[in-house]
Amino acid sequence: MLTSGAMAVSYFISNHFISLSDIGVWVYIEWAIYDLLTISSILFCHYFFSKKFCVAAYYVFFGLVINTFLYILIFSDFYFMKTTERWWFWSFYTIAVNVVDVMMVAVLIVNKDFIFLVKGSGILKKKFFS
Predict the structure, then answer these.
(1) Confidence band for 123, pLDDT divided at 50, 70 and 90
(2) Tens digits of per-residue pLDDT, 9-45?
(3) Quick one: DSSP state of residue 23?
(4) Which position among 27, 51, 72, 98 has the lowest Cβ density within 10 Å, counted as fewest Cβ atoms?
């Protein structure tokens, strides 16, 4: 419930403060900052209320980190590389961000480990940190 609430507040706030009518390259940095703030707020809420992380929290962390990384890469492509012609990364970015967003919404609704992210992380922890 904490994860869902933090996501709802984050998306509500970001949708009201970002104007898509005059969108520019800096919107990707703004979205990355919103995602990092969302991750921080979820961590803070779980710590403050002493709650264990549910499956949804792991998926949201994973999704927000992936999206943040993609936002920074697409910003770098536009701002530093000055790319103006369409290339494969733009299509990859579009598909990946949308798939990750749908995955986060789905797991917030059903709270199931459908791509075995939590189970896989547990196996890696046992293998490398025990």
Answers:
(1) confident
(2) 887 877 667 666 677 889 899 899 999 999 999 999 8
(3) -
(4) 98
Q: Could you tell me if 37 and 10 are in contact, meaning their C-beta atoms sit under 8 angstroms apart?
A: yes
Is residue 42 a contact partner of residue 54, using CB atoms and an 8 Å limit?
no
Give residue for tokens 């530093």.
Answer: 80
* Both tokens assigned to 103: 């995955």
Angle, vertex CA 35, rays to CA 30 and CA 37, nearest 5:
95
Give the position of tokens 């709650």. Answer: 51
pLDDT at position 106 over 70 = yes
AA identity, residue 53: F
Contact 91, 66 (CB under 8 A): no
